[in-house]
Amino acid sequence: MPSVSNQNITHDDQSAESFPILLAEDEEISRRLTAKILLKAGLKVTWAENGLEAFKLFKKQFFPIVLSDWMMPEMDGLELCRAIRSSSTSGYVYIILLTARDSKDDIIAGLESGADDYLSKPFNPGELNARIKTGIRILRLERSLKKANEKIKKLSVTDSLTGCYNKGYLNERLPKEIKHALRYKHPLSLIICDIDHFKDVNDTFGHQAGDEVLKKFTQYIQNSFREKIDWLARYGGEEFVMVLPETDINGAGVLAERLRKKIAQLKMTINNKDIAISASFGVTGFSHPATALTITTEKMIAKADSLLYQEKKEGRNKTKVAGL
Known about the structure:
By secondary structure, the chain is an alpha/beta fold. The protein contains 10 helices and 13 strands. The chain folds into 2 domains: about 5-155, Response regulator (Rossmann fold); about 165-320, Alpha-Beta Plaits, CATH 3.30.70.
């Protein structure tokens, strides 16, 4: 099961070498000749001596292009096609069947088994390369569409100004975080923070400066998080929600108070003007609740929000902590 490639190809997501080919061919001379043609075209090839060996390789490593002979021992080309199509893969697999059987019934059988294309033996090297190029064009389009969809999905859950998550994402994900924490009896904490007197920032320095303050405020909070564990969502205006999985209420209170003190010391220079801000924090959470069924997204947010409201009445730039 050797692998051969052209080492001069530049690696990127759409380069020729980013579409490695799995070649399944039991006849050695034909296998080596086909691999040589593909290698000369700048393609990376891994070969197998029969369909079963090819499928084992495929299960270990994803190949976006499969070039398979029809007649092989242990697992023929049609069986290999069906096995690949029934597998869960990270992307589309373009399959080309190679065979001397070229009747219409044979072609139909090959396509119905899951093949995308069909090449009769003996084939012309130029025709093989052209079929491979067609497959690569289709796979490039599939990758481009996948990236576009991922970008659209990301935009749909991201706040356009600050780059953190939006309220829609909060409403979708927080219930899942609560369910997971309750199921595995893990702690979960939530912090609502609000920039104090933010209207004064907008009135004094202008809305563009206010937007920059929101961006820098968001970046500072996110830089204080554990990567891929804690997350932040803009709840509305200058109000943000921090969700801290695997963190009990005491730990969340310590984080909130540390952030509060640091933010009060920050001096943001925007348009050559120094802007100082402070923030208020309401912290709640649970570890091993006796009444797990009563814990909801609404209750967690309402509790943290009420704590935030209380401290604002008491003077702002404070942290208030209480369990559910």
